[in-house]
Design brief:
The chain is an all-beta fold. The chain is about 0% helix and about 55% strand. It has no helices and eleven strands. The radius of gyration is 13 Å and the shape is globular.
Amino acid sequence: QVQLVESGGGLVQAGGSLRLSCAASGIIFSISATGWYRQPPGKQRELVAHISSGGRTIYADSVKGRFTISRDNAKNTVYLQMNSLKPEDTAVYYCTVSTFWGQGTQVTVSS
């Protein structure tokens, strides 16, 4: 059974930083593509960042230069380092590993 456990969300002031983590189990993590999506209030879910099994990364234009996705295959974990946070980054953030989704973690950025 695949499980994805997210952590690291919370409330932060604009300009601050947070690091999200997503620990996977029940899946061969090292060969799986991973990513982070977010769903702002009242809006559709959108891709934030993606990292392939080989380490190739893709970012949404809105987060380029501020967010960094990384993965640690030894820990079966994918991370999202978020710096210079803005109120418009407020959303529920979801990790993905292969075709599986985490439960989501709330990130709220106050102005």
